[in-house]
Amino acid sequence: MTPVPANIAASLLCSFLAGQRIDAIVEKRAQADLESALTATGWRFSREHRLSDRDIPDFLVKVEGVSVVVELKIRAQRKRIFRQLERYALHESVDAVVLLTGTAMQLPPEINGKPARVASLGAGWL
C-alpha cells in the first residue's frame, strides 16, 4: 500500500480528532479518552511513543502508512508547545505533527519540513 501524502494524513487525523468528545479538564483523563476513541475506531497507534530519551509524544498514530505524532495539551504556554513540536518534527520516524489542544493557537503549515496541524479539543462538543 502506498502511503498517502503526510499533509493529507495529518488532515484526516485532525478531522477525526475534531469530532471527538474528550474531557478537557484533566490532561491525563483527556489522553485516556483519546486512547479509547482511537481504539474504538481501529486506528493503529502507540501511546507515549519514545522517539528519544527526551522526546515522548502522547501518541504516534499510523494513518495509511504515515506516522503522525499527536500531542495533547489542555493548557500550556504556546512557545513551550511549539518548541516541543519542533523537536518531534526533527525525528526521521515522524512524518507529521498534530496538536490537539484547548489552548487557542495556530501552527505554521510545516514545522521542520513536516506538515503541522491543530485540532481543537472543544470542537467535538459543538
UniProtKB/TrEMBL annotation:
Domain of life per record: Bacteria
Please report the name of this protein according to its UniProt entry: Uncharacterized protein
The species this protein was found in: Salinicola socius
